[in-house]
Each structure stands twice: as structure tokens, then as C-alpha cells.
Amino acid sequence: MKKKIVYEIKALYRDDLRITGYEFGKGKKSVCIVGCSRGNEVQQLYVCSQLVKRLKKLEEEGKLTAGHRILVIPSINPYSMNIKKRFWPTDNTDINRMFPGYDLGETTQRIAAGVFGAIKDYTYGMQFTSFYMPGRFTPHVRMMKVGYEDVELAKQFGMPYVVLRNTRPYDTTTLNYNWQIWDTKAFSIYTATTTQIDRESAAQAIRAILNFLAKQGILTYHGHDGYRSMVVEDTDMVPVRTKTAGIFEGIVRVGEEVSKGQPLANILDPYEGEVKEQLTAPVDGIVFFAHDDPLTYANTAVYKLITREA
Amino acid sequence: MIKTICSVGLPVDETLEIRKRRITPTGRKGEKKQLKRISVVTGIHGDELEGQYVCFQLARRIKAEKEKLTGIVDLYPAMNPLGIDSITRGIPAFDLDMNRLFPGNRDGDMTEYIAAKIMEDIDGSEVCIDIHASNIFLTEIPQIRINELHKEKLIPLARHTNVDFIWVHGASTVLESTLAHSLNSRGVPTLVVEMGVGMRITRNYCDQLVEGILNLMREMGMWQGETLTPRVPIISENYQDVSYLNASTSGIFVPEVKHWERLKKGDLIGNIIDPLKGQVLDEVIAPVDGILFTIREYPVVDAGSLLGRILRQEALAGSAQEE
Ligand SMILES: [Zn+2]
Fold first, then answer.
1. B139 C-alpha vs ligand 1 centroid, how far in Å?
2. What's the CA-to-centroid distance between A214 and ligand 1, angstroms?
3. Residues A89 and A201 in one domain
4. For burial by CB atoms within 10 Å, which of A131, A190, B4, B8 has the most?
5. Which neighbouring-strand residues pair with A261?
6. B229 and B277 in a common domain
7. Are residues B205 and B88 in the same domain?
8. What is the CATH number of the domain that holds B149?
9. Chain A contacts of B9, Cβ < 8 Å?
10. Contact between A12 and B305 using a beta-carbon 8 Å cutoff
């Protein structure tokens, strides 16, 4: 294992911003794994730290195939993490909306350019990322439909689901999108949580990555094979939306099977405690995403269901 | 007449409402349907306040000579009311830039729903003016920014608005989700004004724009009152016209020149200093001849922070503004 500084900026009064990477093995740039890019992505940081620990051990045991290099960057945004802000401390920009970056541009464009320069030539790219709404996910691999995404390859992670979604205008500035444009096979990996550590789904993600790397011949690993991934289009998921705002009382959890008509959650009047609205399952399905904030706004997709036929 | 265009219940005893004020000509009841309508929009970014005074002053000017009004004026002073009232640029709680949500979605989440309702309400306007005020970091000369996709239609309109500068910029996919792009794509010509600085009101800029909006209304047949002859704007359509000044290092930026000042290559624009060590970390030098149309307002800078923008002398030379 070699610890190296991928990118660095001097600050006025704070310690320098250091983006640190961990390199395993020697040879061609095979795999790059990026953890958190936003200050609240603690689970993403945790998963990477555990992965660094595992890879270090595997390397010591001689389980890494010669000729392959693996780079893990646990956080490209320690500055925001340390002050508990989601986006960049000064101008609130999102580093994951700045790729491929610009080395003569604004600060976060420079960070993106510095990081991207160091990671763009890898064969496989994996990023632990988060959703903008608070909630828990069924662990999955997510891919953007850019026209040449490799779904069969994504299945090799053995995560329960591979989710495909259409690109939206702002996606063109994400790391995942730019990796794909620069010919890296890129995957976004979602575990259950973001702001809280969930050890179980973190362990699952690490197994998935090690499994994947073993299947590509990059290392030797005999974990259990994981799932036969089900491929789901984002647009085929059935959102369950609140009509009203209030206190959110979830009844079912992520991963649960639900039948049509089954109560999923109550929205309570925040002062009088009465149930204002009960949400029920519109279809038979599996809970893929569940809101986990104690309050909810109106029109919010507090659940996303995958139908059994999907 | 004040009308709520969108209303959404919040979790705890509060309703989010977006309101507009409509001013209609007097005594033209029968022909209202045929009247042209101008929509003046501001406050999409909750920390940009220049448009507040523009809306106020524009309504006063129109009310004072109401008989001269021959079109409908819709004023939307607060597209992001939660943001304005909480000193937040984006939509609070969602941490989303509201100007990346358009055209929205009626069946989407709260923020997308709001964006869709806004689009519906403005749709059908003859013209829309979306007033921005840069951000808290940079001060801008009154200018209109135009996506090159829409320049044929928008430059002629922008010329009437009494701004100093029209900046035609390249198309970018990220900007497809702005209000202006969405309205322009739907056939409502929309001009984006950037002027002044965030969290402040610069009265002379606001007054300048009020004159410009009245003048535009006059040109479009919505206002019969007297208006000033508008300024002849500098128009830049070439991205090479603009030279960007980014901080070479983190520190405190102290300017040595004034905004909208003509500069010669090699002039000192300001210093980046380190108060702890008592050192000048970098001298910021004009890389080209030109005019400084953007200047850093907020002193703390990181490496990369924008300190200013210079419109090159070559771009000025072709313009009627050159004295
Ligand atoms: Zn703005």
C-alpha cells in the first residue's frame, strides 16, 4: 500500500486541503474507487476506509494479481466533512457537479480537474455516492444510460439490483458521466445510508467490489457470490408520494415485500397527532427506497417500489 | 391585484406561497385578452436582492402614469420566498439551486411542482425579464446574458433595456434547466439580467434597469409614457472577448481599482494578502487591455476564486460605446 496526495490546495488559515489516495499493486491503472464527494457522506467514507483495510491485507497476503493497480480515494472533500457542510465550504458548489473540471477555473473546478486528471485513465471506476433526498436504499449499482453502459458487467458485483436511469442535463458534470466519456467503465454504488453508518450494507458493498475485482482477474477472493442482480429501469419504479406535509411515521422498511393496499406510512398532524393521510402500496412490490426523515413535505416520493414483474 | 400562483403546505403550520402582482391598464376591460403581457421575475436565488427594488420602483412608476399603460405587467418579486426570508441562495432544506429545476414537473416533488407552476403562470407572456444579482462574491455591471441558441431573438430586445453590456455565452447542457432556457425553449423570450452584488441593493443600477424595462415595454407597445434613450450596450458574442482573473492562491483580496475601470495590460488590479504573516502573497495584474466589468466583492478567496473579468479592448473597439 502506498499513501499519496492526489491533489492539494493551500488555505489561508485552515490546514491545507489534501485529497489522499491509497494505491495497491503496481502496473496498469485497473481500478479506481472514490468515496465521499459531499460533506455528509459518512457512510461512503466508512465503506472506503474498510475497503482500504481489506485491500491492505489482501496485498500483504499476495492476493493481488501482478500488473494491476488499484487506487482508493476515501474522500475528495475532507474540508466540507470537517465543518459538517454538504457542499463546498465557501461557495456551496458541489464537487460532483464540476467534472471534468478546469485547472484554471474556480476552486471546485480545480479540485475536480486535479482529481480527474489522476483517475481518468483507469479501466474501472466506482464511486460511492448519495441521493439528494433523505432515506434508505436497498443496496444497488446504478448506471446512467449514456449509450454504451455495460449492464452485464454491472451484474458481476452481485448486488441485489442494477438500476439504470436516463441522464438529465446536470448529470453531464458528474464524475460517473465523465468517467464514461473518457472510456472508464463507471459504476455508482449505493449502500443503505449516507449520514449514518450502516455496517451491514457497507460489508455487502465491500464483498461486491471484491467479487467484481476477482471476476476481472484483478485479485483472488473467495467470498460468497452475492445475488443474481435484477436489472431495473429507474422509470419502472413506482413512487409513493405524500399529498400532505407533516410528521412522517414509516411503517415498512427497505427490502420488505408489500402487497397492494398495504399501509406504508402515516402522515401525522404535527400539533394534534391525528393521522392526516395514510399511504398505501399502489402495487405489489418490494420497498426499494424509504424516506427516513421524521418530517416530510408534500408531493415527496417517500417510497419507491419495485414491482415483482419488473 | 395580488394573486397566489402556487401554494404548498409545509410540515409545521406554514404554507409556502408564491405570489405575483398584476397591473392591468384601466378602462380596457373588453380587450384584456388581446393585451400583451410582460413578466418581471426575481428572487430565484434567495441571496440576490437587486430585483426587489426594481419590482417596487417599476410598479410605482407605472402606477404614477397608469393611463400610459397599454399592456399587462406581472411582477414576481419572490420566486424562492423561503430562500429570501432565510438568507439562503438555494431552496432551503433541499439545498437545491432553484434555477436548475426548470421546466419542473407537476407530478414531481415539491420543488419540481413549484417550478412547473411558475412555468405555467409565465407562459403566454410576450417577454420575461429574470433579474439576478450575481452572488455575494462578485459585483457585476448591469448586463444581460444570452444563450447563443436564442441570440437572434433576444439581442434586439436586450438593446432596449438600458444595460451596459450584453454577453452572449455558449450553450451548456447544465444551463438547460434554468427558468430562462425553459421559457425561451417554450417560445417566451426571456432576458436574464445580472447586476450588482448579492445581499445588497445598488439603487443606481436598479433605477437604470427600471428605465430599461419601461423602454422595452414602450418598444413592444405596452407603455406609452416617456422613456429615456437607452444606453448603447457593448455586445460580446465571442468567448475570447472575456479574460478571467482567478486567484493564484488563498488569502484576502484587496482591490486597487474600481469597478468598470479601463485597464492597461500590466496594471495592478489588487493584492492577495496574508494578514497573519503580513505578506503580499500575490499581485493581481491585468493580463490584457480592457474594461473590468466584474470585480470581487467578498475579500476571502481560495486558490481559483474569481477575482474579476475583463472585457478586452478589441471587443470594446467594435462597439458604439467606445469614446
Ligand atoms: Zn442568480
1. 12
2. 49
3. yes
4. A190
5. none
6. no
7. yes
8. 3.40.630.10
9. 244-245, 298
10. no
Q: Which of A233, A250, A272 corresponds to the end of one domain?
A: A233
Kindly report the CATH number assigned to the domain that includes residue B249: 2.40.50.100
Give A196-255 pLDDT, tens digit per residue: 999 999 999 999 999 999 999 999 998 777 889 999 999 999 999 999 999 999 999 999
**Contact A10/B9, CB-based, under 8 Å?**
no
- The residue among B236, B261, B284 that closes a domain is B236
Distances (CA, A) of A202 to A222, A226, A278, B113: 18, 14, 32, 35
Per CB distance under 8 Å, which residues of A are interface residues toward B? 9-13, 86-87, 90-92, 97, 104-110, 132-133, 168-170, 172-173, 241, 244-247, 270-271, 295-301
Work out the angle between the directed axes of helices A42-60 and A199-215 (0-180°, nearest 10): 50
Check the CA dihedral A258-A260-A262-A268 and report its sign.
positive
Residues A221 and A292 in one domain: no
The answer to whether B161 touches B193, Cβ cutoff 8 Å, is: yes
Q: How far is the CA of B197 from the centre of ligand 1 (A)?
A: 10
| Partner residue facing A169 (CB), from B13, B110, B173 | B173
Same domain, A227 and A244: no
The answer to whether residues A209 and A247 belong to one domain is no
Those residues with Cβ within 8 angstroms of residue B155's Cβ, 6 or more apart along the chain or in another chain: B146, B166, B168, B235
Question: Contact at 8 Å (CB) between A119 and A35?
Answer: no
Taking an 8 Å cut-off on Cβ atoms, the answer to whether B174 and A170 are in contact is: yes
For residue A303, give its domain range: 237-307
Each residue of A125-159: pLDDT tens digit? 999 999 888 899 999 999 988 887 889 999 999 99
List b or e across B218-235, with b for residues whose CB sees 16 or more CB atoms inside 10 angstroms: bbbebbebebeebbebbb
Phi, psi of B176 (to 5 degrees): -65, -20
Edge-to-edge, what's the strand order for the sheet holding A295-296? A275-280, A263-268, A246-250, A295-296
Which residues fall within 8 angstroms of residue A306, CB to CB, at 6 or more apart?
A161, A230, A232, A236, A237, A238, A285, A286, A288
- Grid cell at residue A308: 415483482
Query: Do both B224 and B207 map to the same domain?
Result: yes
> Do both A142 and A227 map to the same domain?
yes
Overall domain count for chain A:
2
For chain A, say whether B176 makes contact (Cβ under 8 Å).
yes
> Distance from the CA of B132 to the center of ligand 1, in angstroms?
4
Q: Are residues B33 and B54 in the same domain?
A: yes
Question: How many A/B residue pairs have CB atoms within 8 Å?
Answer: 96
Same structural domain, A115 and A245: no
Last residue of a domain, one of B185, B216, B236: B236
**Same domain, residue pair A180 and A243:** no
Backbone angles phi, psi at B155, to 5 degrees: -60, -45
Residues 6+ apart with CB under 8 A from B171: B147, B148, B149
Total tally of structural domains belonging to chain B: 2
pTM of the model: 0.93
* Domain that residue B250 falls in: 239-322
Instruction: Convert the pLDDT of each residue in B32-53 to its tens digit.
Output: 678 999 999 999 999 999 999 9
Q: What CA–CA distance (Å, rounded) separates A176 from A128?
A: 10
Does A107 contact B9 at a Cβ distance shorter than 8 Å?
Answer: no
ipTM for the whole complex: 0.89
Q: Which of B13, B112, B274 sits opposite A12 (nearest CB)?
A: B274
